[in-house]
Amino acid sequence: MPERAAIVLLSGGLDSTTCLAMAKDQGFSPLYTLAFDYGQRHRHELTAAEKLSRSFGAKEHRVMKIDLRQFGGSSLTADIAVPKDRSDAQMGAGVPITYVPARNTIFLSYALAWAEVRNCDHVYIGVNALDYSGYPDCRPEFVESFQRTARLGTTRSEFTIHAPLVHLTKAQIIRLGVSLNVDYGQTHSCYDPSPEGLACGHCDSCLLRKKGFAEAGVADPTRYV
Does the pTM exceed 0.85? Predict the structure, then answer.
C-alpha cells in the first residue's frame, strides 16, 4: 500500500495524544510527531511527548526550539501567576492569561513547512472548541482558514488539517482514547506542575481534565500534588 504520512502536533497532553492514537488507528503511516520547546514554564510535557511518540511507533519525533518568552503576554511564557480554582463560568468568560498569543498559528506553520519537505498532506492537531479555556486559536473557523492559507502558500494543494476533537467534550475525548488503548497516565496537561512533574490539580487544564474523567466514568490516572 502507498504511504499515507501524517504529522501529529504532540504536546504530551491528553488531546494531542488522542489525536496520535486516532491517526494510527486510521491507517496513517509513517507517523511523524512534532513538539515545541517554546519557553513554557516546564519541560514535563516535552518529556511526555517524546515517550508517547516512541510508544506509538512514530518514525520520527522532533522538538522545535523557539522562544515565545520574547513576546510574553501569557502566564505560560512570562512571570505571571497561573489562575487557579476558577469556576466553569470564569473559565468560559473571555480569553485567559494562559493563552499564548498566536501559538497554534506558529505551530501549524512549522508543521506545514515539515509537511512540504516530507511530501505530506496530513497534519493532526488536538484543538477543542467545547471544553477549552476560551482560546481563539482552538476554533474550527481558525483551522479552516489556516488550511486555505496553507494550500495557497505552498506546493501542498491538498494539504489537510485534521482536528477530530474540535466538537467533542473532554469526556467524549477520554472515552474515545480509552477505546484506542491510550494510557492517559503517560500524558501531562498541568500548566503549573511541581518540580517532580505532579499536576497541581487547580489550574484550568487540571480542572477540565478532572471533570472529563469524572463525566466519562473513567478513573483518573493523573498524579496530583
Answer: yes
Q: Which three cell numbers stand for residue 49?
A: 511527548
Terminal-residue alpha carbon distance, the chain: 47
Half-sphere exposure of 99 (CA within 13 A, CB side): 16
One DSSP character per residue, 30-47 reads: SEEEEEEESS-S-SHHHH
**CA–CA gap between residue 96 and residue 203 (Å, rounded):** 11
Which superfamily, per CATH, for 6-216? HUPs (3.40.50.620)
Write the burial class of residue 4 (CB in 10 Å: 0-12 exposed, 13-18 middle, 19+ buried): middle
> Cα–Cα distances in Å, from 2 out to 28, 71, 122, 127?
10, 43, 14, 28
The candidate with the shortest Cα–Cα distance to 20, out of 46, 47, 55, is 55
Helix residue ranges per DSSP H, the chain: 14-25, 44-55, 88-91, 103-118, 140-153, 170-179, 204-216
Enumerate the domain spans of the chain: 6-216
Q: What is the pLDDT along the chain (225 residues), one digit of tens a residue?
A: 567 999 999 999 999 999 999 999 999 999 999 999 999 999 999 999 999 999 999 999 999 999 999 999 999 999 999 999 999 889 888 899 999 999 999 999 999 999 999 999 999 999 998 766 679 999 999 999 999 999 999 999 999 999 999 999 999 999 999 999 999 999 999 999 999 999 999 999 999 999 999 999 999 999 999
